[in-house]
TrEMBL record:
Transfers a GMP moiety from GTP to Mo-molybdopterin (Mo-MPT) cofactor (Moco or molybdenum cofactor) to form Mo-molybdopterin guanine dinucleotide (Mo-MGD) cofactor. Its EC number is 2.7.7.77. This is Molybdenum cofactor guanylyltransferase. Belongs to the MobA family. InterPro entries: MoaB/Mog-like_dom_sf (IPR036425), MoaB/Mog_dom (IPR001453), MobA-like_NTP_Trfase (IPR025877), MoeA-like (IPR038987), MoeA_C_domain_IV (IPR005111), MoeA_C_domain_IV_sf (IPR036688), MoeA_linker/N (IPR005110), MoeA_linker/N_sf (IPR036135). It comes from Pseudoduganella umbonata.
Length: 616
């Protein structure tokens, strides 16, 4: 019997067994593992009978009313069981052991027990081993029914509450993970994603990961955060639009003059004689005269004033051949019909998208939204990023610098980069090279953040515990990337207590942390923010000097781009390029990106650079 009769209350009262999982449903996975182990199968369910029946097994509702729990399902099952033994598993444990029933049966018979159940050994909070019983994974003689009936009649509902007085055989399984069940939507999503990271990297060597592939995997693995908030227009600066901004009006709302001059009907212009028109009044922007020029007449008009009825052309005042009192003379061919008139809706048409969802709001967008008269904008909620530095040698600014120590600079560069990106920050300080402290910090970060960025400890040093702990908390890949700087990196998703977060374990060296942030974490975070991340806009420049470069890896050299005497772009490397030399970053205004296939660069060769700043 597969228990699928719960309320799914921790999943928002959905039918848990029917939740999609790895291409089918949770229950289909449990069934696939369980069916070969038994002679006949029943699904215990109190709703969605048709969907469960479609799996090919009879569906049995509780005899007791009101979702009384799995024991009610067990009771109904025992009452109708045609075999001498009944085995049970839950619908939300897709990884259940393939030898579960065989081993339970062996123990039941060997010990002449009434019931056999699975147990595993698990570490408790102090790290000590503790026995964990799994009474839902059990095998029992059908003769136990009267005892269960009596327990339920007394109001008992605990899964193992009725075992008292029964002879119970405990069977130790070593693979605790096989009994993992999925209780919440987050866990379900987490499992889905975890599968995908493994899938995405099956054909890749983690020890020789090309930059391009690592970026692809990361991009495919992360997911935009959900959640939208409405903010006042100014507060939208730098935020990501959650929906298209649809223009409620035409901008401009009316045809209007693009020049200070004279408005009239263009049809009266003559191609070979001067045209003479009588000026009958003046229209100002926002202050129309209400006059309507007839044939032989015109109006003085100011830039932005609505075109008077019947007029389609404006002659700029400086192009007039003559103005005598109230008479305007226009020379032949000095203006064409329709000139200098701005059409209604030529900037933005009512009903059309003015800005697309996913756009990061820049100053021009603020102005554009204002031009539509819109005061509030729906934006994605900010992505929360927890970050910390690891290393016993690190000291915080303000502390004395002991022998052999360095000040923590990574947390400041990360602060700057994350702030510029528009993330909400959770600065977790420095974490010592101590497994318990690292684990506590990572678990804590999972609770509060969508993404975690750490620096240090991802290489192979004796104090680099970060890797082990990260791997234990979720699915994390450890890559050696074909690049310099920034070779080692950890990426994945970790979880604790039902909360999970994407993890970027960046290398400790101060330049490496920045380069790997810019080229891996930044595009991923943009995707999490729901933003359209355009490809890196590289520009070409002439290298002023030779650059040593090894083929087969991407090198990110720090450079200064300038305009040479002949007006062309020229780039010069900023001295020593060691990955601990942060000065190479502060002196630079760009990064020279030398791709895998590139060998040594000769002076005068063209290279590609990525600018640090554009117009902000
Ligand atoms: N045998 C090998 N050793 C190393 C390799 C390797 O492949 N084989 N890779 C090197 C590369 S490349 C890098 S990058 C680093 C990465 O090491 P970790 O990520 O484990 O970082 P740490 O060992 O913790 O620190 C490295 C370096 O950076 C300094 N650091 C760390 N955090 C900060 C901070 N917050 N502020 C300022 N400076 C920091 C730290 O003191 C170390 O000097 O490994 C190489 N080794
Ligand atoms: O990541 Mo390391 O920086 O290549 O020195
Ligand atoms: Mg290290």
């Amino acid at each position: 019997m597969i228990f699928a009769g719960g309320r799914g209350s921790r999943m928002g009262n959905v039918d848990k067994g029917l939740q999609p999982f790895r291409g089918s449903t949770l229950v289909a996975h449990a069934l696939q593992r369980f069916a070969p182990q038994v002679t006949a199968l029943t699904i215990s369910a109190n709703r969605s009978h048709e969907a469960y029946a479609a799996l090919g097994a009879p569906v049995l509702a509780d005899d007791l009313a009101g979702f009384a729990g799995p024991l009610a399902g067990l009771q109904a099952g025992l009452r109708r069981c045609a075999t001498p033994l009944l085995a049970t598993v839950p619908c939300d444990s897709p990884f259940l052991p393939e030898d579960l029933v065989q081993r339970l049966r062996d123990a039941l018979l060997a010990q002449d027990a009434d019931l056999a159940l699975a147990v595993t050994m698990e570490a408790d909070d102090t790290g000590a081993a503790r026995k964990q019983a799994h009474p839902v994974f059990s095998l029992m003689k059908t003769g136990v029914l009267p005892r269960l009936d009596a327990y339920l009649a007394r109001g008992g509902r605990k899964m193992d509450g009725w075992h008292e007085g029964l002879k119970v055989a405990e069977v130790l399984f070593t693979d605790a993970a096989a009994f993992r069940n999925i209780n919440t939507r987050e866990e379900l999503l987490a499992e889905e994603r975890a599968k995908r990271l493994a899938d995405l990297t099956t054909d890749l060597d983690p020890g020789a990961m090309p930059v391009r592939r690592a970026r692809q995997v990361i991009e495919q693995f992360v997911r935009p955060v959900r959640g939208v908030e409405k903010v006042a227009l100014r507060a939208a600066l730098g935020r990501v639009l959650a929906e298209d901004v649809i223009s409620p009006i035409n901008v401009p709302a009316h045809d209007n003059s693009a020049m200070d001059g004279f408005a009239f009907a263009g049809a009266q212009l003559s191609a070979d004689h001067p045209t003479k028109l009588k000026v009958i009044g003046t229209d100002f922007a926002g202050r129309p005269s209400g006059l309507q020029p007839g044939p032989g007449q015109c109006l003085r008009i100011m830039t932005g004033a609505v075109m008077p009825a019947g007029c389609d052309t404006v002659l700029p005042q400086e192009h007039a051949a003559g103005i005598d009192d109230d008479c305007l003379t226009i020379a032949p061919r000095s203006v064409r019909p329709g000139d200098n008139r701005r059409l209604a809706g030529e900037d933005l048409m009512a009903g059309r998208p003015a800005l697309a969802a996913g756009k990061i709001v820049r100053p021009a967008d603020l102005g554009l939204i204002a031009s539509l008269g819109i005061a509030e904008v729906p934006v994605r909620r900010r992505v929360r990023v927890a970050f910390f530095s690891t290393g016993d040698e690190l000291r915080s600014v303000g502390e004395p610098l002991a022998q052999g120590c360095v000040y923590d600079s990574n947390r400041y560069t990360l602060f700057g980069m994350l702030t510029r990106l528009g993330c909400e920050l959770v600065d977790m300080g420095i974490v010592k090279d101590d497994p318990a402290a690292l684990e506590a910090a990572l678990r804590d970060a999972c609770q509060s953040a969508d993404a975690i960025v750490t620096s240090g400890g991802v290489s192979a040093g004796a104090a680099d515990y970060t890797r082990d702990i990260m791997a234990r908390l979720g699915e994390v890949a450890f890559w050696t990337i074909g690049m310099r700087p920034g070779r080692p990196m950890a990426f994945g998703r970790i979880g604790a207590d039902g909360h999970d977060a994407f993890l970027f374990g960046l290398p400790g060296n101060p330049v490496a942390v920045m380069v790997s942030f810019y080229f891996f974490a930044r595009p991923a975070l943009l995707r999490m923010m729901g933003a359209d991340a355009p490809a890196d806009l590289l520009v070409q420049a002439r290298s002023a000097e030779p650059i040593r470069k090894r083929q087969g890896r991407t090198e990110f050299q720090r450079g200064v781009l300038s305009i040479a005497a002949d007006g062309t772009r020229e780039v010069r490397i900023t001295g020593a390029q060691g990955s601990g030399i942060l000065r190479s970053m502060t002196e630079a205004n760009c990064i020279v990106v030398l791709p895998d296939e590139q060998a040594n660069v000769a002076a005068g060769d063209l290279v590609e650079v990525l600018m640090f700043e554009g117009l902000l």
